[in-house]
Amino acid sequence: MTQPNKTLEAWLELPLTDIDRASLRSACAESRTRIGGYYRLYAEKKLISSALRRSDGPSLLRLARSLDTTDYSKLSVRLEDGQGVVIALPHYGHYVVTAINLMEHFRERRDIYMLYGSPEHHPGNVLFDELSGILFGDATCRAKRLHADSRGLATAVRALKTGAILITMPDVCPDEQHAYVIPFLKRQLEIPLGTASLARRSGASLIPAIARHEGPLRFSTLFGKGVSTGLPADRADRALTQASDYGATLKMFEFFETIMAENPTHWQYALGHYASRSPFPVMDPSDVEPTWRCIRDVNPILRAPPVAIELACQEQCQ
Prior knowledge:
Layout: H1 6-12, H2 18-31, H3 35-54, H4 57-67, H5 73-78, E1 85-88, H6 95-106, E2 112-116, H7 126-136, E3 143-147, H8 150-161, E4 165-168, E5 180-184, E6 187-191, H9 194-202, E7 205-215, E8 218-223, H10 238-260, H11 270-274, H12 288-298, H13 300-303, H14 311-317
Parallel strand pairs: 1-4, 1-7, 2-3, 2-4
Antiparallel strand pairs: 5-6, 7-8
C-alpha cells in the first residue's frame, strides 16, 4: 500500500487529518517505506490491546513473551553492579509489551518501576494502570507503577538511589516552556531534559532502549550504550548541569534515531514531527566565529565595552 486509506483508518480508529496524511507520506518517502507498514503496526496494536484487556495475568504474560525475541541476558550482565538504572523507552513499536516484559523479567531480582503520566491528564495511559493492576497488583510484588507527578518523581529518585530500575518514556513533551530543541530525524524536536536529570540526580545509570519490529507480531528490544549523566562535584552549577543533561539527552536520541530512521511511522509522535519542515540549523565549525561577530555587531548589549571593576570592589562583593 502506497497511499493513505480512509476506510482502513476508520476500522483502526485512527482519526487522521489531511495534514496527518501528508506527514505520513513525508515520513514514508524519506525512509523509503510503505504506508501499509504504518497501518499494519496499528492493526497489530489493536489486536494486542484487545487480547490484553480480555486476559488474566498468566495469559497476559504468556502473550507478551510470545511476541518478544529479545535476549535479556545481555542487559542482565550490565545490571550486575546493583546501581540504580533508568531505562529510557520511547513510544515506538510495541513499547507497552516491552515494558511488561522488562518488569516481569527483572522483578524477582530488583524493585522495578514504570513511570508515566497520570491517566487523569493522559487518558491513553489508563491501559498502563489496568495492566499493572492485573499483572503486578500483589502488595509483595517488586514491580510497580508510578505516576509522573511530584510524589511519583520523589519516589523514583529514592528508589533509584537504592538500586531500583525505572522505566520511563523520554519522548513526551507535556510543557514546551520547559523543553529544549534537539536535532532529530532531519527536523527540530522539542523535548524536556527530565529523563537525563532524573538519572543524574539519583546517581543512576541511563540506558536507552527501543522496541524494533521484527515481523508480524514479533519484536525485539534493543539496548544502547549507557549514557553518562554525571558531573564532578566542583562543577555542579545550574548552567553546567543543564548542559550535561542536554548532552545526555542528545546521546539518547541519537541512539533512538538509528532505529527510528528505518521506519519512523512506528513512532507514536511521527505525524506531528513530520508536519514540521523546520530543519535543525547545522553550522560548520569554521562559521562559528564569523556568525558570533555578526550577532555581536547587531546586539547593543553584546557590543558594549567590558566594564572594569576595581579589585577592592570585587573583594567587598565576595
